[in-house]
Design a protein that fits this description.
Elements lengths: L2 H14 L4 H16 L9 E6 L4 E4 L15 E4 L4 E3 L8 H10 L5 E4 L3 H9 L8 H4 L14 H19 L10 E4 L3 E6 L2 H24 L8 H12 L16
Antiparallel strand pairs: 1-2, 1-5, 2-3, 3-4, 5-7, 6-7
Helix pairs in contact: 2-7, 3-6, 4-7
Amino acid sequence: MSPTARARGGAARRTTRSRYRGLRTLAYEANLEIPRQGLAVYTFGNASAYDPALGAMAIKPSGVAYQALRPADMVVVDLEGRVVEGALRPSSDTRTHLVLYRAFPGLGGVAHTHSTHATGWAQAGLAIPIYGTTHADHLAEDVPCTAVMSEAAVARDYETETGNQIVECFRERDPRHTPMVLVAGHGPFTWGESAAAAVYHAAVLEQLAHMAFVTRSLSPAAPRLPPYLVRRHYQRKHGKAATYGQAGPKARPR
């Protein structure tokens, strides 16, 4: 048996009786949803799950293909980035996730993908405008795009500074109402009350990016959706008197 196989076997046995077993399962299931939704290929992207009661985050291991993942492969780290359980190396984006969990209270999941259209807008350094009601059903503003990272920031700690860029972009925004962002030159990050919600928002973001791309391609001077329509569509799904959906628990992840 190879050293990697032995390490994985030992991790699987530890996970069986681990206090982090549920957290790792949530992260595992969220990561599998990324390729199912066409949001990444090969080893691109990652998702994490966070439990404030445990003070820990479970995240995809670095460089492991989605089809090869198992729950025991998820790496558990504390909020300082120290590995507390897991035999593999955590995602290279771990420190970015941790910045968001520390800065945005109430998060239970973060996702990072390189989905085609969202990444295209990020590479162009452009926010995604509200052109239609599909966008307004989910957000009451444009999908924001961060500034380009400075050379000095890259030299300090690239992954941490990526998180800091996002936090700076949300200095005047509420991350609960806008659970997504484009990192200029890089790609999208999304979040939510759970890991499943974070990936749900990543799928929504890709659809919004694709629709906006088509709109601008057909009509570069296409008008933005009027504010009164933005308010109407956003409030009917997210307002205090929301009428969308059924009574009781929400059908979609939050």
